[in-house]
């Protein structure tokens, strides 16, 4: 089979080889996620689909279900009123995911099988270096190449200062400055979207992701809204993830804005390469960069080579990653280990406090 239609959606030789093991099923790609169903595209066009009973039963968590960008093996019935059935998700080459909002450890997939992830942040009140560090930590762990996109440059009164701040946290990451109002930077984004490759736009509500995608498509495919007056807070326009084929042959995934970004995992050594490099010079290989002698990271802060806020963010994300996936008891044990060095030291500290309180009474 030549797969002429699916090649428009990023089909590669590697994916075709993976699909050969399912000769009784049809290859398709998830292009849209709905409530309780999916829209998929196969060689014969678009169809609505649901997961098979077996796939549903074997799914251990939400990340075991299909996501936009996934390549799946499906079956179709002759009855046009019946949904196609997704039986198998092919192995993902990359996945951008976060912990679902709330206190659970559920992982939510934002986009799968992407080559480049555009991390969008607007140059107004949405500008937040600490949030971008979170995005970068996840992005470098996803398997895709991150690119920082600074939107709404037409609203920025001090662009050099913002660019200098971003450069301080983006060691291995390229940045693009753009404005959909006057089309600045749009060509730079378009040049990074190659035929057959899939990209995703990710960022907070109101940063202009849908507006950028509309500009790339040359038509208003996605709804847009103005940010809230007074504080530039975004309003949710995109409510579901959707895969779109661009005129130049590239494929783009639009995603809803994210107000909360908890880490399910991450690559701190890439997102914080400056600290990782400094840490190699610390006297102790397990240096926590808090109070140990011979800490090169603390020395860099003292000399002004590293900002304290940068280290604080690193330590916060490091702690968050160490707790990721743990239950409440495991988290408590991890906290005790970090604060006291272990349970025996914790008990000793508690006894000292108790004895001290007794002597006072």
Task: Please explain how this structure is put together.
The protein is of the alpha/beta class. It has three domains: 4-89, OB fold (Dihydrolipoamide Acetyltransferase, E2P) (Beta Barrel), CATH 2.40.50; 95-254, P-loop containing nucleotide triphosphate hydrolases (Rossmann fold); 268-360, Probable gtpase engc, domain 3 (Ribonucleotide Reductase Protein R1, domain 1), CATH 1.10.40. Helix content is 33%, strand content 20%. It is built from 13 helices and 13 strands. The strands form three sheets. It has a six-stranded mixed β-sheet, with helices on both faces. A five-stranded mixed barrel has the order 1-2-3-5-4. α12 (328-340) packs across α13 (343-360). The longest helix is centred in the C-terminal third of the chain and has 18 residues, at 343-360. The model is unreliable at 326-332 (pLDDT under 50).
């Amino acid at each position: 089979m030549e797969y002429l239609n699916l090649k428009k959606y990023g089909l590669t030789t590697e994916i075709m080889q993976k699909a050969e093991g399912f000769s009784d099923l049809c290859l398709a790609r998830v292009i849209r996620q709905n409530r309780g169903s999916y829209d998929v595209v196969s060689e014969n066009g678009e169809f609505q689909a649901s997961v098979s009973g077996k796939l549903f039963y074997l799914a251990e968590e939400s990340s075991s279900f299909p996501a936009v960008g996934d390549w799946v093996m499906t079956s179709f019935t002759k009855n046009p009123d019946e949904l196609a059935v997704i039986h198998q998700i092919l192995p993902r080459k990359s996945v951008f995911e976060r912990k679902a909002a709330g206190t659970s450890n559920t992982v939510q997939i934002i986009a799968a099988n992407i080559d480049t992830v555009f991390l969008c942040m607007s140059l107004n009140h949405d500008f937040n270096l600490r949030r971008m560090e979170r995005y970068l930590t996840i992005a470098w762990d996803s398997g895709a190449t991150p690119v920082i996109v600074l939107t709404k440059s037409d609203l920025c009164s001090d662009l050099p200062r913002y660019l200098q701040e971003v450069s301080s946290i983006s060691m291995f990451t390229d940045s693009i400055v753009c404005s959909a109002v006057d089309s600045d930077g749009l060509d730079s984004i378009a040049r990074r979207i190659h035929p057959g490759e899939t990209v995703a736009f990710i960022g907070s509500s109101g940063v202009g992701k849908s507006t950028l995608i509309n500009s790339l498509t040359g038509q208003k495919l996605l709804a847009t809204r103005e940010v809230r007056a007074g504080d530039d807070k975004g309003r949710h326009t995109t409510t579901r993830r959707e895969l779109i084929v661009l005129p130049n042959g590239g494929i783009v995934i639009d995603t809803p804005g994210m107000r909360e970004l908890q880490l399910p995992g991450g690559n701190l050594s890439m997102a914080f390469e400056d600290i990782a490099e400094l840490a190699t010079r610390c006297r102790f290989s397990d240096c926590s960069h808090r109070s140990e002698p011979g800490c090169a990271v603390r020395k860099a802060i003292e000399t002004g080579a590293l900002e304290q806020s940068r280290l604080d963010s690193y330590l916060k994300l490091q702690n968050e990653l160490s707790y990721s996936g743990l239950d409440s008891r495991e988290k408590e044990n991890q906290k005790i280990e970090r604060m006291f060095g272990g349970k025996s030291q914790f008990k000793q500290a508690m006894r000292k406090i108790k004895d001290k309180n007794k002597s006072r009474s």
